[in-house]
Specification:
The chain is of the alpha/beta class and about 250 residues long. It contains eight helices and twelve strands.
């Protein structure tokens, strides 16, 4: 039985017991294993990892761990220049598109409100999520770290918070999505892209006061839901302002 020595940096420590956080620790090596399998056996999804250094040399997930290796593991959102090192995925996804697991329905609605393409169904199986993420190049958002162990998932994030509004702030901050926010462009109900429509086209479906006071309308071509700039949208704007405020998130880190 051999030994290896590991240290995990920044938010990767969220997955470790307190005594192993932010320190180098010894780990028993009792079988032949890839570095990906070793890291995930410690509870850390591979999608959270960006760079692995073994004895000061950058390696990929297929590297076979050797006795007495000293392994340093860095998170995907660590802010330092890693250009000369071996990145563990070819490049960031150019456009953030998500698929969420069955426990994150409220987060999906909030992200859609902010204009993000978010697939969500409460009957998705883990295999469905992994396949769709791989085929459509989507980022998996989940509270299930075992889902992120699936090899075909290249981009994913384990959401730490259990509160939906805090989850939104966390995702925006950790993925630096503030410049991609485009409120009222997606249907919160079904994820369809909203299009402008004339008042005449929907007037038969409007309540009397809505007909009287409002003139600008959008419709979802997928589920046929109508949206307009009423008092409910004023409340939505207040919510959007709260969700996209960077002050409380940046001061915590």
């Amino acid at each position: 039985m051999g030994r290896v020595y590991l240290r995990f940096y920044e938010e990767l420590n969220d997955f470790l017991p307190i005594e192993r956080r932010k320190v180098e620790f010894e780990h028993a090596l009792n079988r032949r294993t890839s570095i990906k399998d070793l890291i995930e056996s410690l509870g850390i999804p591979h999608t959270e990892v960006e760079v692995i250094l073994t004895n000061g040399r950058s390696v990929d997930f297929d590297y076979i761990v050797q006795e007495n290796d000293r392994i340093s593991v860095y998170p995907i959102f660590e802010s330092f220049d890693i250009t000369p090192l071996l990145r563990l995925r070819p490049k960031p996804l150019r456009k953030p598109r998500f698929i969420l697991d069955t426990n994150l329905g409220r987060l999906a609605r909030y992200l859609r409100l902010l204009g993000f393409d978010c697939l969500y169904r409460n009957d998705y199986e883990d295999g469905d999520i992994a396949e769709i993420a791989s085929q459509q190049h989507r980022i998996v958002l989940t509270r299930d770290r075992f889902l992120l162990r699936r090899k075909i998932i290249t981009h994913g994030y384990f959401v730490r918070s259990v509160h939906p509004r805090e989850q939104v702030k966390e995702v925006l901050q950790r993925l630096d999505l503030y410049r991609s926010v485009a409120p009222f462009t997606r249907c919160p109900r079904c994820n369809g892209t909203l299009i402008k429509t004339s008042k005449d086209a929907v007037i038969d479906r409007l309540e009397p006061l809505t007909k009287l006071y409002y003139n600008d309308f959008r419709i979802c071509p997928d589920c046929d839901q109508i949206y307009w700039s009423g008092s409910h949208q004023d409340r939505a704007r207040q919510l959007i302002s709260e969700l996209t405020s960077q002050n409380d998130q940046r001061t915590k880190n």
